[in-house]
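FAQ: What does a multi-protein file look like?

Like this. Sequence, then tokens, then the next protein.
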Amino acid sequence: MARLGTPVRFALVLTVGIVAGLGMSVGRPVKAEREVVPEPNTKSVADTTVTSPVPWQDARLLAEVLEHVRREYVERISDQELIEAAIRGLIADLDPHSAYLDPEQFDEIRISTTGEYSGVGIEVALENGVVKVVSPIEDTPAFRAGVLAGDRILAVDDVPVDVENLNDTIDRMRGRIGTPVKITVARGPEPKSLEFTLARASVQVHSVTQDMLEPGLGYVKITHFSETTAPDLESAIAKLKKASGGTLRGLVLDLRNNPGGVLEAAVGVSDVFLDGGVIVSANGRAADAKFEMDAQPGDDLNGAPLIVLVNGGSASASEIVAGALQDHHRARLVGSQTYGKGSVQTVMPLSDGHAIKLTTSRYFTPSGASIHQRGIKPDVAVEDAKDGDDRALHVALDLLNNPGTIRQSSAD
């Protein structure tokens, strides 16, 4: 897999909030970053790092505003709240993807990027005013205890579920490994509730699922990009090969509604299918915001045809993968135009447990194109079906069953 020549940072290539669905896991859907401990009181301009204090006139103006608010605002606000509000406004005003993170939000991002958290292992969703179990994650405390999909969560440690604050329910189910938590659920029409006392454990949130569409034709869906995504993809392909007698004659890679994730994971996924060449390049003001990441020899499909499904919910890391495979004529893209997020965010821890998520680079596909606010056009346009019929998947199957068409397109 390609590697950065500079120290690895916590690179966010996810557009937060693209997916508006209510589905959540106890270890919520992945965001993506790489981490760096910044040097204090420095900034980078081009390739030169210089110390540059804030001009005293600007500092005085900020102090004036803070003092007016402290003395004259209708409600009393603590100095800490004022400073945090000032920082939050400063960062949020830069662009939609930069943000000031409190310790809980920072912890969420760390959980998301590693794909691991400490809890009971259930995915939940808010449905018609009820918190339901979407599914228990295999080989977790909830799974082993017999929690079932469709169970309605009533309380956690005897604290009733607040449907207006689903995050509170999720947070209550998390905690240190080995500590107990009681989950009260209702099941089906049974009038009596069920109680499960579970010991929290380390839970792995996997982002890759696989299936066999028909003999020799595999299907892999990636829901987000975390540190485990690339090895999980390799494992999924190995399982599909085994199920089909050792080789695949084609594969569908589904990136629809995948909001993004870890930059290095996107590179790793691209590298699974590419035998060489640039995967992605980036340009920013700081020296380590400029980089190029290349594929290493080896294609897990041995050149077998590949179709990538995309839509308007495919963003960021998904677009890095789609762009790399399209530019190298390794895959055909089927679906609708992608979201169009071509920037990289870096999450920088601060001294008090907070962090800032800051846009540090613009990235480019191997052809040098920027997809920012443009997206990537598929090779075969198929609109998302509203009647439940997966037309894009049908088109992908037709293309895989006619590999000559795919190879002809690759030569164009």
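And here is the next protein:
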Amino acid sequence: MTSAQTKRSVPGPEDITRVVLDNGMVVLVRENHAAPVVVVEGLLPTGSVHDPAGKTGLAGFVASMLMRGSERYSFDEFNEIIEGVGANLSVSASDHTTDFGATSLAEDFSTMVEVLADTLRRPLFPAEHMARVRSQKLVRIQEREQDTQQVANLRFYETIYGDHPYGRPTSGYAETVSAIQREDLLAFHAGHYAPQGAVIVVTGDVSTEAAIELIRAQFEDWRADAAGSAAVQQVAPAKADGVNRLFYPLPGKYQSDIVIGCPAVARSHPDYYAVRVANTVLGRFGMMGRLGEKIREEQGLAYYAFSSQDANLAAGVWLASAGVSPENVDVAVESILSEFARLGEEAPSDEELSDSQAFMTGVLPLTLETNEGVANTLLNMEWYGLGLDYIERYNDLIYGVSPADVQRVAATYLRSGRYTAVVAGPPNAG
């Protein structure tokens, strides 16, 4: 496929309309009339980084309560409308954002935007629903604390980030969720839900002008002062030095789960794409890269083994995960660390690198085949300030990473003197 063909077939400046409303909300629209469906995805710049002390999980609790009743729609009315038109609507919280989405037939698009606006702007947080939502959250937290994979992942982030907000689970802890009261929900919504910095993306069978006017009608009169994303600049980086090896016994379990990682880069760092490509070589491509080939296929030590790059706004980590039999924990840990070191000592071959890059660039067009994929991609482009031509530049960003770049970032970030290793499993695995 030529460069010109690629530019015509993917979203770009020519067919994405971007408008900033008077209240600071950004609207992106891309038409696609292949099917009578419209997808809305968006975010508000507030999340768990704004949870107050002792109330971890508050942002998530607020998001979970939004669809429990608003000024215009009761809980039952909300569900009747959504189910009656065969649509769906969701709201959830993450570190820096509260994310929302809706999918409906084109003929029901205006109804969905009206419901979404009332849900986000005017929730009532009915007291009779708090106990039910709290109970559901506590059950999920209890299940989390008995799952070896989730425990290893959670304790890894707690250890490597310490008091950094990224070290706390968005879902909270049993004691913090139990402490949240209705007044906390109201105060969080009043203090953090606002249009400034919010983003709404619309893709599908709708005219650009109609979509923008509808969103203007429902959102442009929203005026609220909120803390928004100011806290992004206040968080500290992840721990940079030392080795932490921790074991968490879970009686009655038969598998051990391992998470090993190091501080790496934030999303805006110049090394982001080099780390992303290097991570694909290490533990994503094919049978999960070098980790999967060595630890799972060749050594037969793991049920699964892969690596991840977690690059957030203020900091990032580069980690590997594996599930093993308890008796294989020590050798699996050493094998993972050995692969970390090898990537920093030996540049990948041209073939290994090109295969990984082809995989990475081949996945994106598949993502863009659906309205949901396009909407999610445009949302990320806006949130991270990547520009409307990002998709057109993506291949160059990936293929611009050389074998020497892969080796350099591995040697820089996967250092033997500063990693955190967490194992969760049966008591005899430690």
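Q: Is there any per-entry metadata?
A: Some entries carry free-text notes. For the entry above: The domain at 15-234 is CATH 3.30.830.10 (Cytochrome Bc1 Complex; Chain A, domain 1).
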